[in-house]
Amino acid sequence: MEEKPTEISSSKMFGGYNRRYRHFSTTLGCSMTFTVYFPPPSSPSQKFPILYWLSGLTCTDDNFIMKSGAQRAASGEGIALVAPDTSPRGLNIEGEADSWDFGVGAGFYLNATEEKWKNWRMYDYVVKELPKVLSENFEQLDTSRASISGHSMGGHGALTIYLKNLEKYKAVSAFAPITNPTNCPWGQKAFSNYLGSDKSDWQEYDATLLIEKCSKFSTPILIDQGEDDKFLHDQLLPHNFEAACKGANAPLMLRMQPGYDHSYYFISTFIDGHIHHHAKALKCA
Questions:
Q1: Do residues 257 and 274 touch, judged by C-beta distance below 8 A?
Q2: What separation in angstroms does the CA of 141 have from each of 46, 57, 81, 155, 224?
Q3: Helices (DSSP H) in the chain: which residue ranges?
Q4: pTM (2 decimals)?
Q5: How far apart are the C-alpha atoms of 129 and 181, rounded to whole Å?
Q6: Across all residues in the chain, what is the average pLDDT?
Q7: N or C end of the chain: smaller count of CB under 10 Å?
Q8: Where are the alpha helices (DSSP H) in 2-111?
Q9: Burial of 170: CB neighbours in 10 Å, binned 0-12, 13-18, 19+
Q10: Rounded CA gap, 109 and 52, in Å?
């Protein structure tokens, strides 16, 4: 029998509650935290659709909850926000904390195949284990109606998870996502260590390559990208993804935002539009 998540904090916000939990993840082999924003219910029996948020390099489940301001729109739309952590923690693997862009805080939402990093299975955690934990422990959450979004590394995670599971998620959006990781330094570092040297294995986690295999999108992909983002041209490569979407006839709204950078100031400026984008898809489901 799996242990129930333990609530470790609760804060009221816009009529609902941010509640943070800890549980033992059998997928990752360690204790993990996640945060849920529960909007105020309109009736005791109301079940909320879910928007999963995947955060970027160095982040935890707390960054989005504390900095984005997404709860205002989520409260109005009646959508629960679910923010998992970005990697396993506390396993004390040699080298796990040597750099900010690999290891702890940098799970890249994939299933590692190299033996040393075998616990780094954030893909299975996000797609399989966490929804099961939510479904079994929170009757007010409707895990059958879910959407996914994220920032930077988390934008990469949101796009790849969505493209590999079109039947599970009603919509996807991203802020400044790493869209073509097989062709950027962050992705190459992570993939070579987690997945090994065979670059054909990397393609499974590259949105620009995955989009070519997809069809029948129920809603457009939404991406906001700051034009003053210092990572735009060497790490994020949104125009590679845009070209791939055109080639695959996939619906994409890529909005280049003048003057904006890679920060949560950028995210908080445009987050309401993303919440409404997901609300429309979730309520049509």
A1: no
A2: 9, 28, 10, 23, 28
A3: 62-67, 71-77, 122-124, 130-137, 153-164, 185-195, 199-202, 207-210, 238-248, 264-284
A4: 0.97
A5: 25
A6: 96
A7: N
A8: 62-67, 71-77
A9: buried
A10: 13
pLDDT exceeding 70 applies to what percent of the chain?
A: 99
Paired sense of beta strands 141-151 and 80-84, if any: unpaired
Q: Determine contact, residues 73/275, Cβ cutoff 8 Å.
A: yes
Tokens standing for 60?
A: 């935890």
What are the residue numbers of the active site?
152, 229, 262
Token readout for 79 is: 């959508």
For residue 215, give both structure tokens.
Answer: 């069809």
Condensed to tens digits (0 to 9), the pLDDT of residues 129-187 reads 999 999 999 999 999 999 999 999 999 999 999 999 999 999 999 999 999 999 999 99
CA distance 233 to 101: 17
